[in-house]
Amino acid sequence: GYVYSSASRLIGLELSEDFVRLQNDILHKYRLTDRIQVFHANVCTQQVLLQDTDVLIMNNVFEYFIEPSEQIGAWKFIMQTFRKRGSLLVTVPSLQESLDALQVPLPPGWVEELSLDYNVYLGRDTDPEYLRQIHLYRVF
User: Fold this and answer.
1) Which residue of 62, 92, 101, 104 has the lowest C-beta tally within 10 Å?
2) Which branch of life, at top level (predicted)?
3) Cα–Cα–Cα angle for 112, 81, 97, nearest 5°?
4) In angstroms, rounded to a whole number, what is the distance separating the alpha carbons of residues 25 and 113?
């Protein structure tokens, strides 16, 4: 986000204190703290932040780290709170895949999936299969 965007503020939320320390060490080492902050927090405690967010990126955030019942609660919180019209949601895997696994319906009228050009060449190290796992949505 720091390198590829002009976002004035980038915020990361992380459940693991160890990973927060590691991320903050890297941010300080490479002098990236002018626009990036990483907090030790659960997304379900960040209502105001989610309500004001323009772009929310979620990369395998729940599947491997919290129990299904907690995942359901987190997804419901996100679907109720992340409502700013025109905001973008980037997910890996797709919302459908994440929610189907939990038997949680996608609320009608919440988001629309936008098409992505997966044929963009980003370099030799780019895994085209991984790119196809990235999904982009816009909040209605």
Assistant:
1) 101
2) Eukaryota
3) 45
4) 35
Distance, CA of 40 to CA of 64 (rounded, Å): 18
Cβ atoms < 10 Å from Cβ of 78 = 21
Sheet order of strands, 135-139 included:
55-59, 88-92, 135-139, 111-114
Strands (E), the chain: 10-14, 36-40, 55-59, 88-92, 111-114, 135-139
Q: Which two tokens stand for residue 130?
A: 């991984």
CA 124 to each of CA 25, 33, 128: distance values in angstroms, whole numbers, following the listed order: 29, 30, 10
Return the pLDDT at 110: 98
pLDDT band at 121 (very low <50, low <70, confident <90, very high): low
What secondary structure does DSSP assign to 65-91, as a single string? TS-HHHHHHHHHHHHHH---TT-EEEE
